[in-house]
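#struct-help
A.M.: can someone run this one for me? Single chain, 105 residues.
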Amino acid sequence: MTIEQTQIELIQQAHRYLGKAMFAAATMERALVNAAADHRLAAARAEGRELGADPWKKAASEGIDKNLKRLGPRLTAVDGLEDRLTAAKADDVGAALIEQAKKAR
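D.P.: on it. Structure tokens below:
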């Protein structure tokens, strides 16, 4: 069975639409998570209390933990990568990652 050019073009078009839909869904999910975290922070401020943990910092730390576990054996291929990721988790995650990105340039 041969696939004609029109069939190939239809398959490619379907994949483009799927990719756009997946991107839109991921963007919407991120926006909803950010809105929920903003609401949680605003409610805490309105009540005059502080949250025990910054929602974004907690999520970043959990993401780094997940990646460290998943990539464990492969991290040794790059000297110091595991130490840098662990340090980024221990410090202010965003600032540490930005500094590492600047050093890598």
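A.M.: thanks! The two ends are 50 Å apart (CA to CA).
D.P.: also worth noting: The mean pLDDT is 77.
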